[in-house]
Amino acid sequence: MRLLVIGLYSMPADLLSMKDELPNIGRMMSNGIAGVLESCLAIA
Is the pTM of this model over 0.85? Predict the structure, then answer.
């Protein structure tokens, strides 16, 4: 089993809709699983 995790933490979410202009990212998204991660802040 192989697993590759790529975190594009500072990448704006609107760039993910530009899969045609970013073919490598578009190919990874179409052949794998992609989603938006949400951060959570600890309550002090």
Answer: no
